[in-house]
Amino acid sequence: MSSLKVMRNYRFRLYPNKEQEQKLLDWLEACRWIYNEALAQRKNAWEQERRSVTRTEQQVWLREAKKANKRLREVHSQAAQEVLFRVERAFAGFFRRVKNGDTPGYPRFKGKGRYKSLTFTQFGKGLGACLADGKLRLSKIGLVRIKLHRVIPGKVKTVTIKRDATGKWWAIFATEVEISAPLVRPGPAVGVDVGLEKFATLSNGENIENPRHLIKTERKLKCVQRSLFRKQKSSRNREKARRKLAKLHAKVRNQRRDFLHKVSRGLVNVYGFIAVENLNVRGMVRSHCLAKSIHDVSWSEFLAMLEYKAAEAGTKLVKVNPSGTSQECSNCGKTVPKDLFVRLHECPHCGLVLDRDVNAARNILKRALALEAA
Fold this sequence. Notes:
Layout lengths: L2 E13 L2 H32 L5 H14 L1 H5 L2 H24 L16 E4 L8 E4 L2 E4 L3 E5 L8 E9 L5 E12 L8 E6 L3 E5 L4 E3 L3 H18 L5 H35 L2 E5 L3 H7 L3 H7 L1 H15 L2 E5 L23 E3 L6 E3 H18 L1
Helix pairs in contact: 1-4, 2-4, 5-6, 6-9, 7-8
């Protein structure tokens, strides 16, 4: 059986001591300075000379800057050089969005405390980072306690050290894993219509309820936000309120991600052919009055999870044009116009009466099967 290589990320909690934490914070500030300087160089070169600055030029600049700045010399060379890759990726993303006609979003300078992570680009004994005696050894930092709750499969390519909004530290291992190329798995076919009233409706009539994680926590979030705004800037009480708010947001995010993982895994385990809509979620959020609810259901994240899990399991996933799936009759194919608040599909042509979302899910499945047959 043939095999294929995939990249996976594994995240583990880090517990640096006070000395190690202070050094990591100093490194983050130094990396932030490098990022802002590199960004300013590119911006000024273009505005003043209409010239693009390359990463190679900036690597030469960084070597000279480290000679004159002791604070930069203390940062591990891999972490410092990786900052320049981030600047380059930021501009590559900017130019790609310009080319595609999207909102460009020019790369922005990082304010104090806004640079959250640094990356060691080599992993192994004698390199930037490695595992030793059940701890994570970081060059120039030392042995840092880590909660290794599972085995890390594959070959570790990079290690990113990240501090989240709640003040917790994490180690994220990017690994290359070799998996057996899956055979096409037999199983029933299903169409999936994602929504806001119900998280998803299947073509067989099954509904997956929307847990509304953000909406349920919104009242508490607003209360903590008001408390934060009343606190004096730069005070300890304001920092406590900020962390409390960050923990609430983290809880919502973790609940949502857990739900999406379980739903996507459940679908992939049961069905051999899954049809979904090819949604432009970013465009919908930009102009839709239900933007908050759309953010809460995280369709993009769900579809991304479904895609990679289906590929690894041998389940066929087909994306179809979403235009008119709710308006078209799944029985006779005639168009039956209806407003968003109308939840029942009643076809005057063939007499079909069906839940609006089930009708849409059946149309999604029909379109996917037609694409496969073509």
